[in-house]
Structure formats: C-alpha cells, structure tokens
Q: What sequence folds into this?
C-alpha cells in the first residue's frame, strides 16, 4: 500500500498558523489518534473547522484546552463550555455557521465552486456582511467556499489502495472534508484488502496519507 | 402526564403515515414515544441516519444528533452531512419539531444565542426551520411565568416567518397569515389562562380541548 | 413493500407539458421500461432533462423521435443526430449545459439551494444572460437550481423499503435527479429484501414509486 | 507509428506516478496504451469510474464516458456524476487530455460547436479544462492543411486561457504567460514546417527532437 504515514512523518506536516478540518460529529468519527499527535506537536494558532467544539477532554476540544487554537469555525459549541468561556474572554475567535451551510461551504470548495446560494440564515445574524442574491424572485445568502490546509479524517475503514468507507454514523463530515483540503490524512479504524467499488465513499485520489501504527486497530 | 408528555403526545398526532420527521433535542425527542402504531413514520438524525431507532445503553458506533448512543431501524440508511442537509434544506423533511427560547406571532423564532450569556450555536436548527415543510415548536408555555410567545422576538432570530405550529402544555397554536391562532387549550387551563401567559395576540373562535389528552 | 406502481398508475401520473428528468449516461442506467410507457402515453410538449440526447432508438431519443419533446436540457446531443436536425429546423429547443454544471444545478434544487457559483463556462456562450459574481477576487457564473416535475430513475437495485443502490456505472445522474423532482419513479433492475444501511445510495424518502411488473427482472 | 500513436505516446511521458488522469474521446483515449509500467496512473471516466480499465467486447453494465463497454481496475470506485465533477472541477484531476477544433496562443480552445453546422454540446469538456491542474490538447496539427493552432480562436470557446500544452504529430508546444512556446519537433519535420502549419506565433529557443520517438 502507498502513502502510509507514521507518527513522526505526520507531525512533520504540521505547522503554526495552519487550518485544520477535523471530521466527526460530537466526536463520533473524529480521529482521536491524530488529535493526540497534534497535541504532541504543540503547533499554535490553529484554525479549526469542525461540526462542533467537541468536549473539553475529547475531539477538537483537546486542542482548545491545550491553547493551540486561534479560531474555531463550527455549527455548535454548546458541549464544550471551555470554548464559550474563552470566547467571552476574547481568547479565542468563534465563527458559528449553520450546520447545513458549513457542509455546503466545504463541499463547494472541494468541488471547485465559489460558493452556494442558501436561504438558511436570511434575516438573522448569519446574514451580516454577506451578499444577498435573488433568484427567481427568492432571496438567498451567498455562502462562500471554505477550504483548509489539512483534513483529519476518522471513523473510516481503508483498503490497500487508499479508498475509504465509514463506520455507521461516523461518516458525517468526513467524506466532505476529504475533498476540500491541500493535504488529507486519514486515521482508519482498520485496513482491509479491497473495498467493493460500489461501496467506496471516498475514492483513493482524495486521500493523501493513511496513518498506521498504534493508532490503527 | 407531565408537561413534557402532554406536549410530546399532542405533537405526535400531527404525524402522518409516510412522513419523514426530524426531532430536536429535549422535549421534541419524546415525540417518538407517541407515534401511533398504524403510522409508518421515519425519523432522521441530522448527523446521518435515515430510520433512527431508540437510544441504546451499550457502547456503540451509532450516535444520534445529540451524541447519544442510538440505533438504526430496518430499512434505514447511513448518510453523510451533505446528504442529511439535502433532505433538510431541500424540503424532503415533512415535519421538524424543535424547542425555542422565544417564538413570535409572525412565526419567527429564537433558539441559538443569548448575547453575552450563552452562545451554543445554531447547529442544524436554522436549516431545519428553513427547509422542513412543517415546523412545530415544542416548549413550555412560559419561562417560569415569563412569556416566551411574543409579539416580536427580542433575541437574535434562528429564522423569520418559518414556524407553523406551537404546542405547549397549555395550548396548541397555529401561525397563519393573519396572525397566531389559538386552536386548542388543555382542560386544566382556561382560554384566559393562556391569554395571560402569552404576550402575542391570540386570534380565536371556537377553541377545542387539547386533542389526545 | 409500499409505493409500488404498475403501468396504468404510472401513465396516469403523466401529463402534457410536464418536465421529466431522466437518469442515465448515453443510456447506461436509463429506465427504458419507463420510457416505453411515456411513449405509450403519447403525452406531448415535454421538457426532458438528461445528461445527453441518447440515441434515436434508445433512451430519451425515443421520446424525441416520437415528437413528444418541446425542449431538451442536456450536456451533449452528438450521439443523436435527430435532435441536431430538429434543432436546426427549429422543431425542438435545446439548452446545452456543461455536464458538471448540469449535475450541480440539479443537486442544488434537490438541496434547497438557489444556485451555485462555478468557473465553468466563463468567457463562453454559456455565460450569456447569467449573473457574474466575484468571490475573493475570482469570477464565477451563477448557475441556478434546476428541478422538474418527475424523475425517471434507472439502473437501480431497490429493497423492500424503497431504498436504492445502483449497478456499477449506472449510478451517474440517477441519485442526483432522485432528489430534485416533485415525483420520483424508479424502475429497478431487481428488488431485494434489504440494502445494508451503509450501501444505500438513495434513501427511501427520496423515492415516491417503484415500478413493478414486466419491467422488473 | 501513425500520427495518432505519435501524439498519444508523447503525451504519456507527461504522466507522473500517482496522477489521476481523464482522457477524452479519440486520440486522447490512446494515451492509456503508453503509460510506463513503473508509473501508477489512475484513470477517471467522468460518467462515474475512478480506476477505469480497458475496453471490453462482451455486454457489460460498465461503460466509459464514450458509452463503450469498459472495465474497472482493482482498487477502483463507482461514483455518481456529482462526485465525478467534484474531482474534475475541484482540481483533483492532475491531467486531462482532450481534442480540439482550434487552440490559440493564449491557451483558449474551441471544441464543442460549429455554429450552423455541428452542435454536439460540450459534455464534460468545459468542466475538465476549467478544473484540471494540467490541460493537454491532443490533435492533428492542421485540419487537412488548414491551421488549427491560431492567434485567436474563431469558433465559440470551450474555455479561455486554460490550455497548458499542445501535442501534435509535428510538435510539442507549451502555453506560457508570454505566449506559445515551441519545445519539441518530430524528427520528420523542420521547425519551419511547424511554423508554416501554425497560425499562432511560436516562441522558441533551443528546440528538442520530440521525446519518446
């Protein structure tokens, strides 16, 4: 198999100020092994793009607790009071994005689109600073594409070619983020010989590296 | 029945055979306990399940949109977040049931932020109320006596003009073009009790006792 | 199983002037049995949305040959010279849409978006009459969402719940169109008990009717 | 070697290990026959295959983007048209090889319509040339003596400023910011032959014999 990556090589890809998309929904499908290594690297000033803020001791919340995060872009941070407190104290910047809009913005980037027109967020705070565009007499917000330097993909079963499928609800944002980043790293739950071509969710050209070693069953 | 049970069981009567339904966290989740046996209703969890089943105690790889261990029913499907919100935003959800901090007589609601105090975020709620065919708010009628059903929301909105129905432990109300109609009142309360507990103007003619009680 | 449909009930759903999205790519994955029935119904003035024009004797080309079509929206009509000839003679209207844009427009409708911003078609005839929108200094065409009255879905294996997966390359436009129409009718290649929840491509709430009878193996 | 074989084998030298490549119909398809054994190249068919294999004679459920019976290689995936164009438009295709009616020295090309004569449509070509990291045009140098490589395209464009390289049976040219560079000439022709057969202005210094011949 190609493109295997160990702990040291992964840490060498990290740098201060980078943006990371992290898969998972309330940490279901979040690659905790990769988070371990980002904590170990202690890179700073990260922008984290994730569905939610996780928990203080789980998921992307651990990067926040370790003071590595400058900005969080998420749909929900209610499960992680640390982020709320740091936000009130201006120690962290938080951009809240409706969940469906977050998914579309990431997908748009991965698909080479500049953005999408959504009715979600019209007449709310979400509208601030955005273009309003009318199509067939209906108003929409222009939501711009969102990419990142690196995607950390979890919840996956990889095959020897680098194709991925996902365990049950661990799919969530993972396959979308895998299309939208310069470098895509997957921490699979396990590696099998070959995934049936009809069952592949993330085809191998989207995946740059597969982490192996103690972080894989 | 507790207040929560009253609200949940009344809302369950709104579900039609064949409906695809998304239930929010809290009281809305309880609606699933009251679906009539003769109705085939499919529940969606926006994290990626069509055909959500009940909660499970054991460790599982399946969670619901609240992050709790859950199950999938026969004939269900696991989907990614994009497909999930294709269902939600694209009008494929027949009914969504959500809580709210405030709702107003124009059908606007506030549920995701109390500036300076609490900023949990909107999660999927903004998409749900914008995209679902029917939006039902499930909540206590007041916040310890302070009205939550207002002439105009004071908190930042989740969406404007999207709510179709409000069900509380006291009453069932429907948002129509001309305003908020009081349709049903729980037998423990009078119409005047409801008016007292509501800041919004209520339009009503014949008011029925709350169904399913 | 619910929502089964026979030939007569399907024909009763058809009417003059309706718009039909038809799955398939050069007829691979096109539901020929449903096309048979549309021909039999002889409804007129149809708008057909399909990847391509098929062939004169196969796929949507048969509806054109039978003079049932007012307008074709497709990315390619080169395999069906009948359409080219009728277009030159102003007997049929043809809207050519780049293939990726066609897919995005249909997906946008199914997902409740007003449209998407794509760089495809800039500085070409495709640009005519469209808004040009700038995002982060880059220009994009605003391509509007595209829905239809009915989707005819082929190439599928259905289960008893109405979920669909697709045979090999027959997937193409089928799952996208299944999200974007008022009524979605599938002519499955066969029906099985249950599709594994991780292998479902089109979950059952997208599907209104499954055609049964002679048109199903 | 025939002209087509010359063009296809030369283009194959541009493929790098690990590349994801989309080949158009006609001469571009032949490129797959010349991939060096030591390079792992994955071919995409825009109708929905990652890992396209060779053509097959027997009846099959798998077709390529030309509608011909095809196969999928081990480790491949079947995808829908949206995912296919996510690859294409999103910059995930390393190289696309396409034919053209005209190409110009600014990297614009025309390939989908001859007004009043032939209107096959653009299919996936507009997305491919817009989204792929490297766009290579594979075509005969002239149309029976009439130049196809022009100062400025005369037919309606497929895209402007997107072509990176042009390979013909006579020469290899690269579009750079300052214009069209002549890099290699087939041993059967002189530089003057190429200039004669080209309307575009060719910039050149040292010109190499065409590689791989």
A:
């Amino acid at each position: 198999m190609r493109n295997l990556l160990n702990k040291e090589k992964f840490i060498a890809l990290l740098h201060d100020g980078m943006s990371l998309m992290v898969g998972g929904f309330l940490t279901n499908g979040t690659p905790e092994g990769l988070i371990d290594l980002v904590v170990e690297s202690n890179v700073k000033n990260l922008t984290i793009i994730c569905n939610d803020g996780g928990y203080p001791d789980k998921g992307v919340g651990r990067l926040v607790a370790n003071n590595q995060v400058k900005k969080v872009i998420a749909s929900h941070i209610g499960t992680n009071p640390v982020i709320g407190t740091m936000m009130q104290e201006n120690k962290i910047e938080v951009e809240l994005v409706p969940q469906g809009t977050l998914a579309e913005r990431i997908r748009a980037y991965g698909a080479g689109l500049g953005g999408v027109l959504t009715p979600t967020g019209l007449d709310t705070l979400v509208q601030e600073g955005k273009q309003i565009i009318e199509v067939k007499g209906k108003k929409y917000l222009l939501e711009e594409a969102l990419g990142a330097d690196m995607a950390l993909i979890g919840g996956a079963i990889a095959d020897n070619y680098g194709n991925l499928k996902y365990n049950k609800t661990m799919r969530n944002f993972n396959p979308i983020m895998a299309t939208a980043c310069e470098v895509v790293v997957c921490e699979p739950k396990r590696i099998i010989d070959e995934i049936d071509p009809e069952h592949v969710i993330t085809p191998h050209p989207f995946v740059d590296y597969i982490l192996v070693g103690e972080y894989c069953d | 029945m507790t207040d929560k049970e009253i609200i949940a069981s009344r809302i369950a009567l709104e579900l039609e055979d064949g409906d695809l339904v998304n239930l929010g966290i809290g009281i809305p989740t309880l609606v699933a306990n009251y679906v009539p046996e003769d109705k085939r209703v499919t529940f969606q969890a926006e994290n990626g399940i069509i055909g959500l089943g009940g909660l499970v105690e054991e460790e599982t790889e399946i969670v619901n949109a609240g992050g709790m261990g859950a199950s999938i029913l026969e004939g269900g499907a696991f989907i990614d977040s994009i497909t999930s919100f294709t269902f939600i935003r694209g009008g494929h959800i027949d009914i969504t049931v959500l809580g709210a901090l405030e709702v107003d007589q124009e059908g606007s609601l506030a549920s995701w932020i109390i500036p300076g105090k609490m900023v949990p975020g909107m999660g999927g709620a903004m998409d749900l109320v914008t995209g679902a065919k029917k939006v039902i708010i499930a909540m206590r009628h007041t916040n310890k006596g302070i009205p939550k059903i207002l002439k105009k929301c004071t908190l930042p909105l989740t969406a404007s003009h999207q709510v179709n129905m409000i069900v509380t432990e006291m009453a069932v109300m429907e948002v129509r073009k001309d305003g908020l109609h009081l349709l049903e009142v729980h037998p423990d309360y009078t119409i005047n009790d409801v008016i007292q507990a509501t800041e919004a103007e209520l339009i009503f003619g014949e008011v029925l006792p709350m169904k399913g009680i």
